[in-house]
Design goal:
The protein is built from twelve helices and 16 strands. By secondary structure, it is an alpha+beta fold. The strands form six sheets. Strands 10-11-13-12 form a four-stranded antiparallel β-sheet, with helices on one face. A hairpin with a 6-residue loop joins strand 4 and strand 5.
């Protein structure tokens, strides 16, 4: 609905987010806060692998800070959304339905040129079941689509060989072997993700460079501080904590804040083991987290566990239908011109 309204009104240049949200409510039977929150989420690079909306202004931070109010920021459709979703969009290639008050027609779906659910992932709750499809690298998903197009008899195990989640915030997957059932059979599993660090052995500094997906950076520091306050003897070996926003040189600080990824530095005492401190940080904070992955979708009106092959197969049939509709319309128009 957000992308359709922005496409309909030609929002390829910056427009006030408050104005866009007001237009979205014409086909969205909920409050403005839900539309505003969803629009901002589509523009956050630590949430979306590939942004669908570009926001000018404060769109929030990975630390957990909220975005500015809609009247202060502007938004437009991103280049990725234009090329991957809206390039083939027209009144012929998609199904249409009435909006909630029957004032005008809205599309049931958008003709995405890639299986977007695999690229940006999705997290949703239903009645007694949950869907959590992780984001993946665009090139890897495109390669699998091409492999299926070239060989319709390819097995899911062959298609998913070497495929793993690709989180926009980085981090590393600890239990990669346990994801085998998820990719081969679509069986739900738990993915354990931890952040990445660099050790400065000369100065006894632990630098956090990548954070787990969905974890606010400041929440890790807050959890470590709380554990130290409660008497955690291992974490008492930390002398000082500094993030990359507290830098004295103004130009360096501005460049640091504009980076996509934030870093934290933990200055440790000389007589402590930095690896032991890191393991304790994993234990007491969200710097190591578990994601309940599940390829659950609604198919034929019922919830069902699916595989990557099932998703790509359905996407391919959907793309063929879109192209067939467009080609049939073009042929009909050409025949009409020939008749004249």
């Amino acid at each position: 609905r957000i992308l359709f309204i922005m496409w309909k009104d030609g929002d390829y240049t910056n427009k006030k987010v408050a104005t866009i949200v007001g237009r979205i409510l014409s086909c969205h039977p909920h409050g403005d806060s839900s539309a505003y929150g969803a629009l901002v989420r589509l523009a956050q690079p630590w949430v979306m692998n590939y942004k669908l909306v570009d926001i000018t202004g404060n769109a929030g931070t990975q630390d957990g800070d909220p975005a500015a109010a809609g009247r202060y920021i502007e938004a437009k459709i991103s280049d990725f959304a234009q090329k991957a979703i809206l390039q083939d969009f027209d009144t012929i290639s998609t199904d249409w339905e009435d909006n909630y008050d029957y004032a005008f027609k809205v599309p049931v779906y958008l003709p995405s040129r890639i299986p977007l659910v695999l690229v940006n992932g999705i997290d949703g709750l239903g009645e007694a079941y949950r869907c959590y499809i992780p984001p993946h690298n665009l090139n890897e998903i495109a390669d699998r689509c091409i492999s299926y197009i070239k060989n319709k008899n390819i097995s899911n195990a062959e298609l998913c060989e070497g495929l793993y989640p690709d989180f926009p915030t980085g981090g590393e997957i600890v239990n990669g072997d346990e994801l085998h059932d998820l990719y081969t059979r679509g069986k739900p599993c738990t993915c354990v993700v931890r952040g990445k660090v660099n050790f400065d052995t000369e100065n006894n500094v632990i630098s956090m460079t990548e954070f787990p997906y969905g974890i606010a950076c400041d929440s890790v520091a807050a959890a470590v501080k709380e554990a130290t306050k409660n008497g955690n003897m291992i974490l008492s070996g930390i002398e000082n904590v500094q993030d990359d926003n507290h830098i004295t040189d103004d130009d360096t600080a501005i460049k640091s804040r504009n980076k996509k990824k934030k870093t934290y530095e933990y200055q440790c005492r000389k007589d402590v083991n930095m690896m032991e401190i890191l393991n304790e940080i994993y234990k007491v904070s969200g710097f190591q987290t578990s994601l309940p992955l599940s390829y659950m979708t609604t198919k034929d009106g019922y919830p069902k566990n699916v595989t990557v092959l099932d998703i790509i197969k359905d996407w391919y049939a959907f793309r063929v239908d879109c192209k067939r509709r467009k080609a049939t319309s073009n042929i009909a128009q050409t025949q009409y011109k020939c008749h004249i």
